[in-house]
Design a protein that fits this description.
binds pyridoxal-5'-phosphate; seven-stranded mixed sheet; Aspartate Aminotransferase, domain 1; 13 helices; 2 domains; 343 residues; alpha/beta; Aspartate Aminotransferase, domain 2
């Protein structure tokens, strides 16, 4: 059995969190003279530090208990909190499967944590044989699994992920930023079974609120309590809480949008596959396509000149560019632009 408290940094276990005015009095009605706010205006009050209304809505939509939900200022804040709660600077390590999302590495550097990188195999899957000997390292605190993975676009094998969760004595963070675009199952419900599991999702992709900066972590209440101790007290603004809440009341519209994007992805895949500059369009469980082309630098730069911005991943996966599925009109412009490129 994983002992969460033993994995947490000693200073975090011991620390007394900042106690804000809204921690002491939780009611909504009253004459508020406790937080030195300006009594005038519409946005004059500090936000709810625990985003209770938003969490209630998330709880309903996701079918997961309120006490299993943490809201962050984007997934990026949650990634950083994982480091600050569990990883001792200069001592501890994390495990990633590369190529993957860049923020794990950035947060590791900021927190002075060593990153162990295991390359994904040729089908962009986890090489379990290479993982197994590492999992018993006492200083290995976090394993990040991005599924669907950015930039490869595919989900990791379910059984491989579950094997890692059930054998690792540290924390497994599954980043499901793109899960709504995937037909494969989420690990969300598994947080009730595995105390060392953190599942992250976000409002930034399928929910269409990247500018709002709201990310979600689903995990056991003990880990959430440590996140709450370490996070800035008012990490989600009132405006952003409202925007996220409002979006959750429009689940049908979101589902329709996701279906449309998935259809457009299929069309775009067809079109790209037919082109002579395309070597391969990789399978995608997300809202983007990883495309291997004849010369990624040239394709990328030519597109930029035509005012179309894609992501050149040549440095990470030879001759690959990552293309986010756009509106139908945007996808057509992209395809037409690609047709003008001579290699
Ligand atoms: C886009 C993305 C996110 C979203 O991060 P936010 O901070 O919630 O906007 C998280 N993880 C991955 C892998 C992503 O590609």
């Amino acid at each position: 059995m994983v002992n969460i408290k033993e994995l947490v940094r000693e200073n975090v276990v011991k620390l007394t969190p900042y106690s804000c005015a809204r921690d002491e009095f939780k009611g909504k009605e009253g004459i508020f003279m406790d937080a030195n706010e300006n009594p005038y205006g519409a946005l004059n009050r500090y936000p709810d530090p625990y985003q209770t209304e938003l969490k209630k809505a998330v709880s309903e939509v996701k079918g997961i208990a309120l006490e299993n939900i943490f809201i962050g200022n984007g997934s990026d804040e949650i990634i950083d909190l994982c480091f600050r709660v569990f990883c001792r600077p200069g001592i501890d390590k994390i495990l990633t499967f590369t190529p993957t999302y860049g923020m794990y590495e950035v947060s590791a550097s900021v927190n002075d944590i060593e990153v162990i990188r295991i390359p994904l195999n040729s089908s962009f899957q986890i090489n379990l044989q290479k993982v197994k000997p590492l999992l018993s390292d006492r200083n290995l605190k976090l394993t990040f699994i991005c599924s669907p993975n950015n930039p490869t676009g595919n989900c990791m094998n379910y059984a491989d992920i579950e094997h890692i969760i059930s054998t690792f004595r540290g924390i497994v963070v599954i980043d499901e930023a793109y899960i709504d675009f995937s037909d494969k199952p989420s690990f969300l419900k598994m947080v009730e079974k595995y105390p060392n599991l953190i599942v992250m999702q976000t409002f930034s992709k399928a929910l269409g609120l990247a500018s709002v900066r709201v990310g979600m972590a689903f995990t056991n209440p003990q880990i959430i309590q440590y996140f709450n101790k370490v996070k800035p007290p008012y990490n989600i603004s009132t405006i952003n809480q409202r925007a996220a809440l409002n979006k959750l009341s429009k689940t049908e519209k979101v589902k329709k949008q996701v279906r449309r994007i998935k259809m457009e992805k299929a069309i775009l895949r067809e079109k790209l596959s037919e082109m002579s500059l395309t070597d391969k369009v990789f399978p995608s469980d997300s809202n983007f396509l990883l495309v291997k082309v004849k010369n990624a630098d040239l394709v990328y730069n030519s597109l930029v000149k035509m005012n179309i911005i894609t992501r050149n991943r040549n440095q990470v996966i030879k001759d690959c560019i990552r293309i986010t599925v756009g509106k139908p009109s945007e996808n057509k412009l992209l395809v037409n632009a690609l047709k003008t490129i001579k290699i």
